[in-house]
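Researcher: Here's my situation. A collaborator sent me these components and asked whether they could plausibly form a single complex. I don't have experimental data yet, so a predicted model of the whole assembly would be a useful starting point for our discussion.
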Amino acid sequence: MTRQDYELIVIGAGPAGLAAALSAKQHGLSRILVIERDKELGGILNQCIHNGFGLHYFGEELTGPEYAGRFIDQLEGSGIEIVCDTMVIHLENGDDWRIVHAMSTENGYQCLKCRAVILAMGCRERTRFAIQIPGSRPAGIFNAGTAQRYVNIEGKMIGRRVIILGSGDIGLIMARRMTLEGAKVLACVELLPYSGGLNRNIVQCLHDYDIPLYLSHTITNIEGRNRVQRVTVQQVDENRRPIPGTETYYDVDTVLLSVGLIPENELSREAGVKIDRRTSGPFVYENLETSEKGIFACGNVLHVHDLVDYVTEESQAAGKAAAAFVLDGALTDIGHVIEIKTEPTVSYTVPQAVRVNEVAKSLRIFLRVNKIWEETSHIVFRDGDNVIARFKRDYMAPGEMENVNVPRVLLDRVKGDMLYVSIEEAQR
Amino acid sequence: MKTLICIVCPRGCHLNVDEENDYKVTGHHCEKGEIYGRNELLHPVRVVTSTVKVKSNIHPRCPVKTDQSIPKENIFPAMRLLDSVLLTPPIKRGDVVVDDVAGSGACFVVTRDLDT
């Protein structure tokens, strides 16, 4: 690190950080620093060796390392400074400057000044203790993503007979991966009545290898002294309570947990960034600026995505906005601000608020529904009684993020400062 | 009539394939989905991804993939071909690791650059 005052510091060099830094550079910034805590760039993509990335963004199917590689190639020779093996331990927000406290073996403790910050720290996995599975605590219980790192990066085989709790994408991908490496995956067990993963992953990771998926089931006990020996699986009722008498037992040595991801926002909180309880990520405006001036957020630290392609697009928008903030200064006339409120049928939206004047042609809103909608339905935006916009969908599921483009002309029609979004079945 | 979920893209279209009517596909939203639906019943294929050993202190494994889809029944034979591979850096994306995987005409290629 040669400079001590940057225009922009990007925290994290996974897919979000890489795309954000490149975009900020393209939009006119020259003094950019990217800080990464791992020893190399690319983040989680390095261990996602399966294919299926890039269909939207590149129009072809890439593996995770290939997707990351395309951005890492662009970064080389771009003039963007990068430091790896460096941990950001604190973030402070001031009026003109933001201060990033970083620590590394090479440079020790440093306080780095910058005009703008992009939060791109990603997310981490929920653990066994977060979901409180009863039983003993033997070896052999892994988070699916941790297991993925052991197998794909370190080349370690972590078990022979495996059961997977949770049907998130990482769990599904690991079911296939463990099978290909010679393990026997006995079942994938999901508490909810629907899978949290993409349909295509259920087909190509479970069906292809005859791995059963048990919906509305959960693990209620783990036994084993040194290593996992047996787990108990039970069906659950509509209140997710185990039903007595439905116990089945699996002789396994390994339990993989794919039970959700949590955006890593400790730094964001320290800087005073307002966190949305629905996403566990920062509350952001239309340009991905957080509640704190000059601090932007993108990727899985903002909300957990199912497709990296959307992370890239979102991060490019954050990079562009951060560049505009540095070059043009903070917004002086904020104008009409609309908060987007979710009705009970919608889990969350990103952004959560929009400064209408800042929207050029249209505003892209990402959202998740909280149940499966198999019949044709509409995503409806209302300001009180008036329908502002309506988008038709044939099928929606919580595991598949939706996005809509609301034209500026429609936002201009919103009366008041609230826009409500809900899902409604189409009239027959 | 057979119902399938398309795996070509994350959209996951619900396809109906009519075996009695020349494998006519309905429910797809793109051309690739139509081809997938037909192939899936006639001769299903998949891209296989895995890792191979690397002579390196920093990166013990290097990720690889088949550069085209191979028949489903060849997946496990293809995996076994990787057991004996040992790469020495530097390695470049696209380097061929195994030629003509299990007689399918596909190659296993490296999917990341490794300098050390």
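Model: Some features of this prediction you could bring to your collaborator: Residues 49-110 of chain B form a domain with the CPE0013-like fold fold (CATH 3.10.530.10). Chain B has two domains: 2-43, 49-110.
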